[in-house]
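Our consortium's second objective concerns turning raw sequence data into structural hypotheses that experimental partners can test. To show how far this objective has progressed, the report includes one record in full. It was chosen at random from the queue rather than selected for favorable results. The single chain below, 138 residues long, was entered without modification.
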Amino acid sequence: MADDAPPRMRATSVSIGTPRPRQAAAFYAALLGWRVTADDGPGPGEPPEAGWAQVAPPRGETGLTINLEHERHFVAPVWPARPGEPLASQHLDVQVDGDLDAAVAHALACGARLADPQPQGDVRVMLDPDGHPFCLFV
């Protein structure tokens, strides 16, 4: 390896701002069949819904860890983006093994909502309980 080569790096997690991190972690754990690995309550002077939580793949499986951070001034993003509205600067893409309709039904049962419009036939844009978009795709 050359001396001027950059250090080896890899992304290990994604952090999502939310008004209710522990509830958001429970949603993503149920949606993905993963486990909540951290569930910290509010700090001194913070509201009861504050805190921090983390969701990770089952032991032995690979995948990004999802960190859920309390955002005191959270405003739900608007999807699709509209001028002057809060925008989703990122979203999760979730691959579905098998039946996309069954995955949508599962997401709805976990508390997600189907977004409108739907731009592609093999992708479903969903909104988590706090309004963050995520995509289910085959």
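The partners drew two points from this record. The chain is about 15% helix and 30% strand. Residues 81 and 87 are 6 Å apart (CA to CA). Both points have been shared with the crystallography group to help prioritize constructs.
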